Amino acid sequence: MDERATRLLLVELAGSLFARGFSVGSAGNISVRLPDGYLITPTNSSLGRLDPDRLSKLDPEFRHLGGDPPSKEVFMHRAFYAARAEAGAVVHLHSTMATAVACLPDVDADNPIPPLTPYFVMRVGRTMPVIPYYRPGDPAMEPAIGAAARRSRAVLLANHGPVVSGKTLTDAVYAAEELEEAAKLYLLLRSSAPRLLTAAQVDTLLATFG
Ligand SMILES: [Zn+2]
């Protein structure tokens, strides 16, 4: 896919996320790796009204080359690309259900959402570490995300929201959507005792689709 097609796909997928309530206002940001750098949504932009020609273009060292200035949360994306060679795109949302789970104090810090469905396991993986709360823009967040991203495709920022990577832009968006649905199921079932996938079932899924 060439850069033009990638820009158009990013705008289309971001608009779809916005239209379905996965982001509001100027919350959330999306990036994609290119052969010569990165594209990322601009600072203060709405995922619902992106202009393909004004997406921020960054060089391989994340220096701003063109388009509008990049999201102030660009360091979250940089942490993932540095940690995961296979990551081709990163999606960060403040989506309601995943962020609700990110506000629960008593979840498992490695698996805040248990394996309820195969699709969550296939898209997000075995673990999704919870990163302790940092104020937005705190530079200490980047190494914390990077350390967790080395062992997981997605992280949950405490009291903030999810950051999800994928091999392609479409993969990363689908994983963020699956994560939001899994968070909703978890919150619906939290006061009951749902049947979870067993460790053996998770192993089989990851061996087959991971
Ligand atoms: Zn954020």
Short description:
This protein has 210 residues and is α+β, with helices and mostly antiparallel strands. It has helices at 3-19, 74-83, 96-102, 118-124, 141-149, 169-189, 199-209; strands spanning 29-34, 37-40, 56-58, 64-66, 89-92, 130-131, 154-157, 161-166. Helix 2 runs parallel beside helix 5, helix 3 packs across helix 6 (169-189) and helix 4 crosses helix 6.
Descriptive notes:
The radius of gyration is 16 Å and the shape is globular. By secondary structure, the protein is an alpha+beta fold. The protein has helices spanning 3-19, 74-83, 96-102, 118-124, 141-149, 169-189, 199-209; strands spanning 29-34, 37-40, 56-58, 64-66, 89-92, 130-131, 154-157, 161-166. The protein starts with a helix and ends with a helix. Helix 3 (96-102) crosses helix 6 (169-189). It has 7 helices and 8 strands. Residues 73, 92, 94, 160-161 line the site of zinc ion (ZN).
